[in-house]
Fold this sequence. Notes:
This protein has 558 residues and is of the alpha/beta class. It folds into two domains: 17-23 and 248-455, Up-down Bundle (Four Helix Bundle (Hemerythrin (Met), subunit A)), CATH 1.20.120.980; 32-245 and 464-557, 3-Layer(aba) Sandwich (Rossmann fold). It is 39% helix and 9% strand. It has an eight-stranded mixed beta sheet, sandwiched between helices. α5 (178-196) packs across α6 (209-220). It is globular and about 85 Å long. The protein starts with 13 loop residues before the first helix and ends with a helix. Residues 2-49, 53-57 and 390-394 have low confidence and may be disordered. GO terms for molecular function: carboxypeptidase activity; dipeptidyl-peptidase activity; serine-type exopeptidase activity. This is Lysosomal Pro-X carboxypeptidase.
Amino acid sequence: MASPHERSPMLPSPYAASSSDTRRPLPVAMGWMALVAAALMLVGLSTFDSPTSATVQDAATAVTSSFPTLPDGSRDLLSLCEEKFITQELDHFRATGAGSFQQRYFVCSPESFHPTNGSVFFYVGNEADVTLYLNHTGLMWENAAAFNAVVVFAEHRYFGKSVPFGLDVLSHMQFLSTQQALADYAVLIETLKTQLGADVHVIGFGGSYGGMLGAWFRMKYPHIIDGVIAGSAPVVNFLGDPDHPADTEAFNRVVTFDMSEDAGAAPNCIPNLRRALKAATELAETQNGRKQLAELLHLCDADSLPTSDDIVSIAAEAYGDLAMGNYPYPTSYIMDGNVDLPGYPMRAACEPLAGDFAEADTLGLINAFRESIGVYYNATKSEACFFPSAPVDSVNEATTSDEAKQAKIDQKGNFWGYLECSELYMPMSSDGVSDISPATPVNQSQDDANCFEQWGVHLKPNWAQTEYGGMKALRAASNIVFSNGDFDPWSGLGVLESLSPSVVAVHVPGGAHHLDLFFTHPLDPPAVTQARQTELAYIRQWIDEFYAFKQQVAKTDL
């Protein structure tokens, strides 16, 4: 999962929801001729052998291409790509059809690319506008020429410009599913191969939910996609897997680790945050306390008084996203490209909580908590108050039918919530000991009620396990690299040990949410550089195996 939408509990508080809406609305171009110098091919590997240390070192020597940045440090690579659309079936599995929609994708083709012995680097789009991933997935960009690869970024149905039914989309959510999305990608790749006039090798790349889709794509369509780099993919935390019981506390446990001295944060951060949350939730127990709390937290709507559940939700949203985005340098990725978080933002969020607060200093603790979450909710440093608008207001104030429809879509927020309810139920809990949150068990019945209220669907708690097979199916798969960083809260829900010679786990100490998929940076931890070298070595192995087999078949046909 990618962006911050992935972390959400079943239904965040109105405060967390409205903050997301206010911070996420969703001419430095370098010609591809500069990539020609990067066409240094990596050494080949024997079939089913794991890359040796020598081979990994060879991968490290491959020349990667450099892409200049804008003055604010971001990248805008759209000028290097061609925006295209393909007509896709709304329902790939219904013989009579159900209509069609236009799926967006980008083709970014280096001038040095030739389909003979070429490859496709295919980004498996996830739950946001695909341009976010296009501008951040540097592992693909920097290595495309070295592998004679054309780069393709595919957008997930119901996101970005690939939303069917326009403003009436909320009445047609039944066509949003992982199965339909994977079929979209399969059709798109087959179409691309036809256009190229060659049976080229295809390597998938995906982060978070995109990494999950990438792994399942390889498992469901191994004849279409030949290997996948799946970064931070929480594929093994679904209910019903007899080989891997869901660890519902893993996410919050890692969030708390990121606040610890071991992760570089202030030693007092965790105990002071616990005290601050306790003080805030106790204030929220009375009407006068809630009024005082609204003032202390600088809420824009002083009449919208926070409950104790709101306080917990506000904290969970902020610290969960800060942990995912605990990158070593400033980046806007977790904020959907809108505003940079500071480098190691969790350390920045812990700074206000680093002091020694007196036992009775309730106001000081709550003020420190407000400053701490402000690293996230006021990343622009320009907000005079928190949560300046609530989506429900825009629904009431709409003056036209189209405005009302758009307001309702905005109120729903990201459609990831629908997928979570309809098929990808990943419940989260906290024990109140190994994390900063109060002890909160999984409440499946409440989650189901929330899903029905929000989306009109009931939970299918075991469907992901039934459809994709969990750990047992992963052991039978091939050509997938799962990478996970120990700063990333989703890491505890992923594949952390290699399952076979070709279903490989790469551990990334000091890595946040699929940092290895990003562009190289001088502040990258050494483990991230090593992870990329390993991933490139496996890509080279898969490509060599593919073309060696094609040559063998060609000789047999002579």
